[in-house]
Amino acid sequence: MKLKQIGCAVSLAVAGMLSASTQAGEVEVLHWWTSGGEARSVSLLKQKMEAQGHQWKDFAIAGGGGDSAMTVLKTRAVSGNPPSAAQIKGHEIQEWGRLGFLTDLNVLAEADHWQTILPTVARDIMQYDGNYVAVPVNIHRVNWLWANPKIFAKVGVSVPTTLDDFFTAAEAIKQAGYIPLAHGGQPWQNVTLFETVALAVLGPQDYQRAFVDLDLSLIAGPKMVEVFTQFRRFRDYVDTDYRGRDWNDATNMVSHGDAAMQIMGDWVKGEFVADGKVLGRDYVCVPAPGTANAFTYNIDSFAFFKRSGEDNKQAQYDLARAILDKSFQTPFNLSKGSIPVRMDIDLTPFDQCAKDAMSAFKQTAATGGLVPSVSHGIATTSYVQGAIFDVVSQFFNAKTADPVKAADKLARAIKAAM
Ligand code: GAL
């Protein structure tokens, strides 16, 4: 057959997959959504697929932030047995795309107008070499501070909006006998806190220069020394059992009134919602101290591995379609704590945190305050991210820590990973 005829045959075959599926297929989906709020959210996707007659094989690997899940995925892929779909996001989409594992979703993107319904940052991240190879699920804002208003009322301090306010309030809360900051000392959580402090100290432009452009003179320079100096101060306001704590256990400390605050992405809200907590009464959300003019984005997505069997390919297409369907975007994001990745969703059912997040997302996209998360794999490669995880965690956990040495060490570690 001539090339043109083959091209037409492929398009017709794939176009046939865009019609409502009649064949039952199987999708094995790797993800790390195992906390209360996360599991409740991913079950909505499972239900949607089963309603279409497909079999959902849940390949859940516990471990917030996904490091363990990615390790297992690499093992499965190297052994020639990847799952149908995997929660792969940010720069790792490029890394998997480059290896040639991923199915392209261009026909689906064309049919469902991804170019118009998705914001630029989401469109760009989902493409490798000009082809769509992943489908975005949501937009999480990382630079949030979650606070228990009852503790603040008891102590008589206000929820902080600047770094100075944070340390003043934290000291008063500590003196009153509460844990000021609930924190889990896992590398990804340490870097979530670090990047949020960096955003406050550096501002969005220098944050981009440091963690996207990897400007080593900035990273080794006095501004980053100040970031490490401020970051280290947070160590005085976490409890002694912070190391290794899971993020959702830290959230429970705020939820149950043992700790006053948590600095973490809005998947935290998914835990509050799952626990029946009420916004305003049990928790409040404010931009992390010093970052109200910025939005650190973390976009969850799924990539699809090349499969045999028309029914299994159909199931993959149906899964990708279901994820961006309006009827899924609303209930999923309400449960997950994120905002829809489609820009044409009515936010009336969403709470004020989500409405504030969406307006901040749109406003910062216009002003330059929209920045990619380092800790969640959006800003840079997994290799550079690993170097940052190591240096930042060692610094935060060390008995004594020298910010000048830390900045220099960070620059050297990043240079070695570039
Ligand atoms: C992030 C992920 C979020 C949330 C969080 C905690 O990397 O994008 O959806 O699950 O980890 O596990």
UniProtKB/TrEMBL annotation:
What does the UniProt record say this protein does?
Part of a binding-protein-dependent transport system for a sugar.
Recorded protein name is Probable sugar-binding periplasmic protein
What Pfam families does the database record attribute to this sequence?
SBP_bac_1
Q: What lineage is on file?
A: Bacteria, Pseudomonadati, Pseudomonadota, Gammaproteobacteria, Vibrionales
Among SUPFAM superfamilies, the record links this protein to:
Periplasmic binding protein-like II (SSF53850)
Which N-terminal residues, if any, form the signal peptide?
1-24
Keywords assigned: Signal, Transport
Q: Principal place where this protein is found?
A: periplasm
Cellular localisation: Periplasm
Q: Spell out the InterPro entries in the cross-references.
A: Bact_solute-bd_prot1 (IPR050490), SBP (IPR006059)
Taken from the UniProt entry, a GO cellular component term is:
periplasmic space
Please give the organism: Photobacterium aphoticum
Q: What family, per the record?
A: Belongs to the bacterial solute-binding protein 1 family.
